């Protein structure tokens, strides 16, 4: 086990927050189990992206699944934008003889809004954004305290970080715990957030476990979606890929062409040249409808994504290099009433007889 603390508070007024965060970090570290023997530790590895050779990364494994994760770092971190949660970016994952995540974008910039791989998450609503004055602070979960811009936000601009809060990470042989604390007394929003990326023993599986609690005057309330930047076996988006659901799919607000919408599935008509986006409905209020299957039916790579929390919205986005079923959930935590949830990825290989071009 390794414990790594990254203090990323910057800007005026951050010293009090830092002192409180340091104390909280020390208390959290003191509560952790004793370090495992050296042989059981995950080890730092070189960044798998030559465009970011200094980005800190670690490899974890359970013997069946191996994954490389980028670590949050305000100076050298692979991703330093303000759209996605900085924790849990999976640069590479291999299971069941296939690969599932990787770089999908052509140009890299650490502060570009979507220059990030893996099943990363965006907590959509800026906590305190509407009430903040121009130039005032608001809170973005997984990022920190941001400065409200003078111009209306369009798209996903990278905003100024006033205080990045405090990150503490605990690295084990088969899991990484990411802990983030942010507290803004001006807006009245603050949180303690823990996300664990784990590879359960004996399973071709990745599990994301989340826990968030409000430590400010105001409750945390937002929509969160998991972007799922799938790159199955490094292959482009095209007719080999199929996405399925356990509910009758109805698509609307469709932007772009090339996706056929079936009763319970999405299929690519041809290889994509431009991104396609659509919203989907048809799911119900039960967590059982959070059940997504993505397969490359030529290479045989398959993944099923489920959760213990119901869907609140659904967007499908895809580009020439990645397939992204974006499942939303509603995240709410009153002070003293935290929220926890889990997302599970099951990886498998389609039998050769059932793959495209191999039937019969």
Protein described:
It is a single chain. An eleven-stranded antiparallel sheet has the order 1-11-12-13-14-25-22-21-16-19-18, covered by helices on one side. A six-stranded antiparallel sheet has the order 7-15-24-23-20-17, with no helix packed on it. The chain has one domain: Beta-galactosidase, Chain A, domain 5 (Distorted Sandwich), CATH 2.70.98. Residues 5-39 have low confidence and may be disordered. Strand 21 and strand 22 form a beta hairpin. The longest helix is centred in the first third of the chain and has 18 residues, at 14-31. It has one helix and 25 strands. With 360 residues, it is mainly β. Helices cover 5% and strands 42% of the residues.
Any chance you could write out the topology, listing elements then pairs?
Layout: E1 2-7, H1 14-31, E2 43-45, E3 57-61, E4 66-70, E5 90-95, E6 98-101, E7 121-123, E8 137-140, E9 144-147, E10 161-163, E11 166-171, E12 175-184, E13 189-198, E14 205-214, E15 220-226, E16 241-244, E17 250-255, E18 259-261, E19 265-268, E20 276-281, E21 291-296, E22 301-307, E23 313-319, E24 322-333, E25 339-349
Write down the CATH class. Answer: Mainly Beta
What structural class do helix, strand and pairing data support?
Answer: mainly beta
* CATH arch. level architecture: Distorted Sandwich
> Which radius of gyration do the C-alpha atoms yield?
20 Å
